[in-house]
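queue> pop job 88
queue> type: inverse folding (structure -> sequence)
queue> payload:
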């Protein structure tokens, strides 16, 4: 899959590298700002199930 992405991105190696970094950063921002806040109410990370 990564080879396919690398082949379809136009430009030389430097342009491809910058494009891949921008795309990965954009995916990270979307996950951090959209997906994770939507999932947070469904994940019990703040609930302690083992008491002292």
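queue> result:
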């Amino acid at each position: 899959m990564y080879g396919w992405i690398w082949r379809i991105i136009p430009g030389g190696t430097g342009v491809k590298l910058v494009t891949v970094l921008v795309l990965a950063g954009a995916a990270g921002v979307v996950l951090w700002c959209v997906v994770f806040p939507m999932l947070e109410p469904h994940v019990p990370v703040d609930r302690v199930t083992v008491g002292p």
